[in-house]
Design brief:
- The chain is mainly alpha-helical.
- It is built from 15 helices and six strands.
- The strands form three sheets. A two-stranded parallel ribbon has the order 1-2. The chain has a two-stranded parallel ribbon with strand order 3-4.
């Protein structure tokens, strides 16, 4: 039994090739149309002539579209910067501009000396934002006790007498029983307490004073595990993991001051922590810049995306010469700026094919 008779089969034989021909024709027309549109966009994206570019100091967090065009940005580059900014992006340093879609090395090198980040946007260690749980309502007010109270004696009744709610007082006492709050810094780590309440209670809470240990020594930051870091006064539970993750990306701390670069380390805690730690720079795991995997170099916090691209591109060319032998050679080839070279120098070594 046949589904189609001879006449229908002949009709299908004509119809199918005809449809294929129409489809191919439509595809060709669309390809030509897309090429035409791409050409139009490319012509629109042409940068200003070199003699029309104006260089001036600017803040990428406040600059306008027209001013970006004057600096030599293409329409796409300018729109991308403003798009990122409207989505919440804050430019903390000049290197952040290198992440803009379409940014070229020539444009970045030209505008970099003119970037001026305002004080409200510039990168700097700052206190963690806290959740203001107290006072819960405008009518609730704090009533200071007659004298400071040891934290172990701070009951729900005493907290309610100081103006805290029943619910909050119970949560505080339960938390102290479970984990034993040893300092103001540990209180700040708790989301339901935060900075505002800690500052309010600070003059009225007495914490146990740890007994002095004559064998106590500053903690070596590169060999310390999480438990050892947690014992440092000023380092909370959340900060411990941030310090360990940043240490792994760095390859180890070269100076104790690098701790200020770790997210979660506040200015107040930073000053306290410095008195209790030291760094053994011989523990640093260095990167062989001539042979290390690209991913290892890319994850280092001191290697900007622009620097990484230039480094990987030129490393292949240098292999015929045996690779780089000093960081100064990388500065001379405009791969690293003098500031980047200064920061990266302790983390680099320059192997040769023979040593491998």
């Amino acid at each position: 039994m046949s589904w189609f008779d001879n006449r229908e089969i002949r009709a299908l034989g004509l119809f199918i090739p005809l449809m294929l021909l129409v489809g191919v024709g439509w595809f060709v027309v669309e390809v030509r149309r897309m090429d035409h549109r791409a050409g139009e966009l490319q012509r629109q994206e042409e940068l200003l002539p070199a003699d029309s570019v104006e260089l001036f100091f600017f803040d990428p967090n406040t600059i306008s579209y027209d001013s970006l065009k004057l600096l030599g940005f293409s329409k796409t580059q300018a729109r991308q910067l403003l798009h990122y900014r409207s989505a919440g992006k804050v430019y903390r340093m000049a290197e952040d501009l290198d992440g803009i879609y379409g940014m070229t090395d020539s444009l970045f090198q030209r505008i970099r000396p003119y970037v001026r980040i305002g004080a409200e946007y510039a990168f700097q260690p700052r206190s963690r934002a806290s959740w203001h749980d107290f006072p819960a309502a405008p009518r609730r007010s704090f009533r200071a006790p007659d004298s400071p109270i040891p934290i172990d004696s701070l009951s729900e009744d005493r907290l309610r007498a100081m103006g805290f709610s029943v619910r909050w007082s119970k949560a505080f006492v339960d938390c102290h029983r479970r984990r034993g709050i040893r300092s103001l810094e540990e209180m700040r780590e708790l989301n339901f307490i935060g900075d505002s309440i800690t500052d309010l209670l600070a003059p009225w809470i007495l914490f146990p004073v740890p007994e002095a240990d004559p064998f106590d020594e500053p903690l070596e930051l590169n060999r310390a595990d999480s438990a050892a870091l947690r014992s440092v006064y000023g380092i909370g539970e959340k900060s411990v993991m941030e310090i360990i993750r940043y240490r792994e990306r760095l390859g180890g701390f070269h100076r104790v001051e690098q701790l200020a670069e770790v997210r979660g380390v506040t200015e107040a805690n930073y000053e306290k922590i410095l008195q209790q730690i030291w760094c053994d720079s011989f523990q640093i795991q260095k990167i062989d810049i001539n042979f290390a995997p690209a991913e290892r170099i890319k994850e280092h916090p001191y290697v900007a995306p622009r620097t990484f691209r230039k480094l990987i591109s030129k490393r292949q060319q240098r292999k015929s010469k045996g690779g780089w032998s000093t960081v100064e050679e990388m500065v001379e080839e405009n791969i690293l700026t003098p500031d980047e070279a200064k920061r990266l120098r302790p983390y680099l070594r320059f192997g040769t094919q023979e040593s491998e």
